[in-house]
């Protein structure tokens, strides 16, 4: 009897003698959130994220709104309510000096839709569209008369441009200067052409990506249901599919790399970069395959524990089916958090 009572006490002890654990880490987590809220509040008060979103000129005026004068800055404090776009006077020759764009920028009411080749064209564009592309204190009638007009007006010829979505910058439509402008506009990345190709590829295949995502979701639900009835078969089938799938992918990547490398028609720089990418993917896939095969071989005797674990998971999901929606809530919460994170980051970046 005494042994039975002792065993019962030991069995129920975790339930009876509950207490708070990891108090130190909970305190550190609370301090982390307090610091996060402090930094967020400071960023909102001291930052000016609208300068990045709306854009601003070289004199401290934010485009698209009425501004207050900045002490010591000439031509600041102007009303730019009707001038929502940022225009760079040397749009095809943007350079970065001390993390700032060297070219002067102005707030304009519209971007030039056609190429402007002379000061007369600038004057005609200003009179017809009400968009002045020269320095604010230069009167439109003096565009062709002022001897310093060449320094106060944009570099000629002015390429046709179009407002960039969201950021309201006048982006030149000339292919020769587009890549340089894009590299400055988006995070000042040197390899913007590679990023642009990757992004274009993703957008071009968005229907395929969405379809594969829906298919993956359907297979996941089918696997969850299958785990409740045929756990052992499903686990061994998944392991076999994983092994053969990785071997097949590695083989295909090595074959494509060998085929492209020995193809005499591979002359373009883009095709040569594709060969390098294929080599990198093939090496990475081979390493992952070897590591997983080694782990499966070493842990082959522990597969029964995985079967038992999935049996328990299947019973839990059967009793609490709403657990299937947990990844969806986590995904939505993470989206909200990362939007908040980016907003704070932009505010900090413009807090001076």
TrEMBL record:
Database matches in InterPro entries: Choline_transptr-like (IPR007603)
The keyword Oxidoreductase is assigned to this record: no
Cellular component terms per the entry's GO annotation: plasma membrane
Keywords: Membrane, Transmembrane, Transmembrane helix
GO molecular-function terms, A-Z: transmembrane transporter activity
Location in or out of the cell: Cell membrane; Membrane
Primary localisation category: membrane
Residues spanning the membrane: 23-45, 209-230, 237-257, 277-298, 328-348
Membrane-topology descriptor: Multi-pass membrane protein
Known role: Choline transporter.
UniProt family annotation: Belongs to the CTL (choline transporter-like) family.
Name recorded for this polypeptide: Choline transporter-like protein
Source species of the chain: Oreocharis arfaki (tit berrypecker)
Gene this protein is translated from: Slc44a3_1
């Amino acid at each position: 009897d005494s042994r039975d009572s002792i065993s019962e006490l030991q069995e129920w002890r975790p339930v009876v003698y509950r207490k708070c654990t990891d108090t130190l880490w909970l305190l550190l987590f609370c301090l982390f959130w307090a610091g996060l809220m402090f930094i967020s509040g400071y960023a909102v008060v001291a930052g000016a994220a609208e300068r990045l979103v709306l854009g601003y000129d070289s004199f401290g005026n934010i485009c698209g709104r009425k501004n207050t004068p900045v002490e010591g800055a000439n031509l600041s404090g102007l009303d730019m309510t009707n001038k929502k776009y940022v225009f760079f006077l040397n749009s095809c020759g943007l350079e970065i000096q001390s993390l700032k764009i060297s070219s002067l920028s102005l707030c304009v009411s519209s971007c030039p839709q056609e190429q402007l080749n002379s000061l007369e064209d600038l004057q005609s564009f200003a009179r017809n569209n009400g968009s002045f592309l020269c320095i604010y204190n230069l009167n439109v009638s003096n565009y062709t008369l002022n001897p310093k007009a060449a320094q106060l007006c944009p570099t000629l010829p002015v390429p046709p441009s179009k407002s960039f979505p969201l950021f309201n910058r006048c982006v030149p439509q000339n292919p020769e200067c587009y890549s340089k402008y894009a590299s400055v506009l988006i995070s000042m990345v040197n390899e913007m052409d590679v990023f642009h190709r990757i992004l274009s590829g993703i957008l071009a295949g968005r229907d395929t990506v969405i379809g594969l995502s829906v298919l993956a979701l359907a297979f996941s639900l089918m696997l969850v249901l299958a785990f409740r009835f045929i756990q052992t078969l499903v686990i061994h089938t998944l392991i076999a599919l994983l092994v053969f799938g990785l071997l097949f992918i590695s083989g295909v990547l090595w074959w494509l790399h060998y085929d492209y490398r020995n193809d005499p028609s591979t002359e373009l720089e883009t095709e040569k970069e594709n060969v390098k990418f294929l080599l990198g993917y093939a090496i990475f896939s081979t390493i992952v395959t070897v590591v997983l095969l080694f782990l499966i071989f070493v842990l082959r005797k522990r597969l029964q524990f995985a079967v038992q674990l999935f049996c328990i998971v299947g019973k839990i999901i059967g009793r609490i089916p709403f657990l299937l929606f947990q990844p969806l809530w986590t995904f939505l919460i993470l989206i909200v958090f990362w939007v908040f994170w980016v907003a704070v980051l932009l505010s900090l970046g413009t807090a001076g």
